[in-house]
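User: quick one
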Amino acid sequence: MLRAAILALCVLALAGVPLLGDEVLIQYGIDALLFATLAQAWNILGGFTGYVSFGNSSFYGLGVYGTAIAMAQLHWPFGVGLAVGAALAVGCAVLFGIPILRLRGHYFAIATLGLSATLAAIIANIDIAGKNIGLILPLTRADAAFYEEALLLLIAATATVAWIAKSRFGAALLAIREDEDAALVMGINTTRYKIAALTLSAFFTAIAGGIHAYWITFVDPGGAFDLTLNVRMVIMAMFGGPGTVFGPLLGAFILSAVYDVLASSISTAAALLFGLVIVLAVIFMPRGLWDLAGGFRRSGARYLLQNIRAHRL
Amino acid sequence: MLLAQILLNGLLLGGLYGLMALGMALVWGVLNIVNLAHGAFVMLGGYCVYFLFAGLGVDPFAALPAAMLAMFALGYLLQRYVLNLIIRSAQLNTLLITFGLDVVLTYLAQLAFTADFRTINPSYAGANLTVFGLTLPLLRLAAFVAALLLASLLWIVLQRTRLGRAIRATAQNLTAARLYGVDPARLYAVTFGLGAALAGAAGGLYGMVSQVTPYIGATLTAKSFVIAIMGGLENPFGIVLGGIVIGIIEALAAIYIGPTFTDAISFGLLVVILVARPTRSLRSA
Amino acid sequence: MRRLSAAVAAVIVAAFPGVAWPDAPAAAAKTVTLGASLQLTGPDANLARYFRDGYQAAIDRINGQGGITIGGENYRFALKLLDNQSNINLGVQQYTQLITRDKVDFLLGPYSSNHTLDESSIAEKYRVPMVQGGGAARQIFDRGYRYIFGTAPPAENYFGSTVEMMTKLEPRVHTLALLTADDAFDVAVRIGTKALAKQSGVNVVVDQVYPENDPNFTSLLALVKSKSPDAILLGGHETEALNFVREAKALNVNPGDMMALTVGVPSADFRAALGKDAESMFGMTPWVASPVARDRWFGDAQQFAQLFARRFGYEPDYHVASAVADVETFAYALEAAGSLDREQVRDAIAKSDFECIYAPIRYQANGQIDIPQIVIQVQDGKIVPIYTDHFLNKPRYPAPGWGKRN
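Assistant: Done. Structure below.
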């Protein structure tokens, strides 16, 4: 009961940010919310199923371009554009998911990366997508609306993850993460579950991409299928705590804030510090903030050293 | 005639690509680390050679050993004191940490060298020979020969020296190798250093045929993936061959499909090969 | 926040190369801040820096001569520049930041059409007038935007005078190879040039688009060599042009009778980087430093060029001149509008009609200027104007092969 009340308060507080009227805050906010959605979407596959995707930018890019082509070239409304983007991403997830999800570990990660890069390179040659120049979307002046839409999307994604965490679907995913061969032996149709997870992940990622495209008003292959985007969402989910419901949110909000504040004051150094944060986080808290919080309570600062001792050569 | 020239161009560039991928394949095969910062080492090697050439007037080919030494040291230190800390944790973590390193190295380079492009342009850069009606750019030929030499050197080290035997043993079975007295911390560091040194050499050569900026790393890492997967992680010459195949495919694609499709083809190949290959048991998740 | 921005702006202004500039600005009274996100580092840096220096030169000159009078009050200009490292996504973010966080009054543009195309959307979104000299593609101006103005003539017409000249050379140019990059500017150049060639009866035997991100010209050069065109036209930015010429030399692909580049030739360090390999190369420019172009603050273009070279250490080219024109557009428009109100200033800019070192400034209905290109050629390391609609000087034609340049 208390938890629900706190949650509701948080949501209301977030929803009220545009009322403050600070344009800069709204910019940060939209960024943070969209990233949180991306981290949460990644979490479904990477956190619960254990399949580390470095190619969620494929779905992001498809969402971006689906929306952009629909709006800029075909002059369809935003909602339809989002649907097109999501459809493209889901289609891609099903089509490529089947062969790629047969791979494990490193190979899966690299294959998803390759997929993203290939899509970017192909789109840079397609006329209707504006080739390498990209597309300009119709101009709109409604930042507050984008903020609320991003918030709604995040709520939907988090609710989905919360449902997964408590459902049999989620249990199956966790079984796959822990020991896929054992899960197979127990009769779980791992392929179907993996594809379902990938599809859900793709769906939310694509919608986030569509919103971002319309907000920024321009798309190009480099920005849409950006590899660093991939890693940022993985880091945020991992930093916060993969496989949990609120971990990715925490990770996304904190890291987003850090990155944006740094970027606006010392732009180059921001990226540098971000890289350092990644390195340090992997060394000291490989299981994320959520686990860190628990670990600290249990064993204090020794938690950090325990991690190193467990994983070093 | 056109076809022959294109094949030649692809061959020469491909040898260089192969050298570039060698470092990544070595580290991947022995340490099971996919080094996302590989391109950053190539880039840094390029800068080493550039500054030796532009600042001290050293001939770029003569500067290669110095660059390799510098990159070896960097790689050794990174592996010994940073990467060794997480080497037994989940594979995701090595991917993430090398990505983080890549970001750090790229932005350090940008701060130190600015984002301006540098070319290593020795006086003999434009020289060429005409052989059987084909134009043979001498600089590219020299880079190709250097790449082959370094690959051969690596093969000799791996096959005929004690260090090489230790490396191969560790790649096959770390526990057994330890029983034979291999110090894994040092060995891993040396291997990673070797990989970085090879990357650095490739960077110096790359700076001669193209240009060096802090950002060239990302695409080169990606290309190295493709080649490493294609060539297999065992034999240096397999990698060089893989590089040549990619170089030729790119050169052909540029004419017969379109210059803007080369990336689509390289990466598409990566995905296809990964998916179509029979699952290798090489320590998959 | 405002004080921080002012301090940062002051540091940026102070950090720029400045030998005793005769009209250094005194302590600012009221200021009008112009902001821009430029490619100060990265592949576009060499030319984007011309804009930085041009903006600076104009602002310092205007401030040094007393600033401008807006609605009876005296104002000085201030400049706030950010470095987007040649990354468009960063540029878009920075323009948003300049408007929302740093609260600049008006915007100046980045270099290159691709950047301008995307970043101008931000200016339009927030209704802040932007005057830019780096975006030549007509696509920028065909969107019905009201707040974007450009002093770069249409990209589609860059090779216009060149193609016309080709029909008048002895021996006549019958075939040409057209190689263009895939960014906004060069795509526009390609479309325009193909149409012009068709009109003039010149046959385009090679028409290839190369990727801007990874220009590897070896295959293209082999193709060009196999077709032996009379002329090679290259559309691309400076990095690509440099690479191209070097690879052409290494692969022994001679420029037929002539080679022309869209960028590079007018800029001094491009020519310096190539040395003898730049000889006989054709290019184009909408501007030369002639005393005919008179200016309220600089006297005339020739005086401007001398002052500029003395302060910044290199000869200005048309990018620098157009940057000066951008700043002067604001100066005249602010005075005409009599206020800093963005709508009124925007309307005043649209009605601009003044002389300056760059050209007579009059914006067409779509916001872009239209001035003709002059074909130029490198002769003995110097730029010689060759052709506008008639021959001004004798061209060195046909161009000598690579082996014969030393």
